[in-house]
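FIELD: query
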Amino acid sequence: MRDFGLYFFRLPRSFYLLCATTLVVVLFWGGGQPFAAGLFPVPYDKMAHSLYFGTLSLLFWLGTGGRWTVLLLVAVSAIGGLDELHQATLPGRVADIYDFLFDTAAAGLVIVTLEWNKFALNEIQRGTNKA
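FIELD: result
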């Protein structure tokens, strides 16, 4: 019996980069819409930030093949900072330093976890691991 979850890691890198780019576009476009104000109440907004930026880090990491990890962390953190600056200019939205910190912490946690497991993921991508 095959584990179909492992096939997620065998998709082309361009697919992951396209998904990550789509998430960034949706972040800035969707964040500017009127419905975005109060979409996630406190403290659930921190969980939403963590999940969003953790997923963004995962997609960028997979899209780059696990290369440039420090640059990925800086880039995702910068996207989080730009999102907060964007929120500061919108009516009904508030920029929060803690949101930025949660963005960066989630990105860092995901990237460190992926780097820690890089050898196993590389085996899965090559198809040599029959787990």
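FIELD: remark
Residues 4-126 form one domain.
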